[in-house]
Amino acid sequence: MKVVFRTNLGSMDAKKLGLKEKECRAGATVDVHDKDVAESLIKDGLAVTQEDAKTDPLVLSAQGVPDKPEVEPPTVTGLAKPAEVKGVKTELK
User: Fold this and answer.
1) 38 contacts 3 by C-beta, under 8 angstroms
2) Residue 61 to residues 9, 31, 39, 53, Cα–Cα distance (Å)
């Protein structure tokens, strides 16, 4: 069963589960041969299925996918008004 890690799995935990530590990084897809191990990782919230990984915010963040699409700021058109100072009296001597 293929799972996608939501967070890094430690070396000791990877060894206990029979996985390679370097493959068990956030955002990485790993083929876990033992179905019980895969279900345990998913149940504990450390990994998700490949289908769920497409919408999981932690996986997308680890893979470098932005949360929101870039939005182009609106362009403002129109003429700027000239600066005006009212109520100030100046006298030249």
Assistant:
1) yes
2) 16, 21, 23, 11
Cα 74 to Cα 23: distance, rounded to the nearest angstrom:
43
Strand order across the 29-31 sheet: 29-31, 2-5, 47-49
Q: Tens digit of pLDDT for each residue in 19-65?
A: 999 999 999 999 999 999 999 999 999 999 989 988 888 888 888 87
**30 - beta bridge partners?**
3
How are the residues of the chain apportioned to helix, strand and coil, as percentages rounded to the nearest 5? 30, 10, 60
For residues 5 and 56, the answer to whether their CB atoms sit within 8 Å is no
List the domain boundaries for the chain. 2-62
Question: φ, ψ for residue 7 (rounded to 5)?
Answer: -150, 165
Q: Is the pTM of this model over 0.90?
A: no
β-strand partners of 78: none
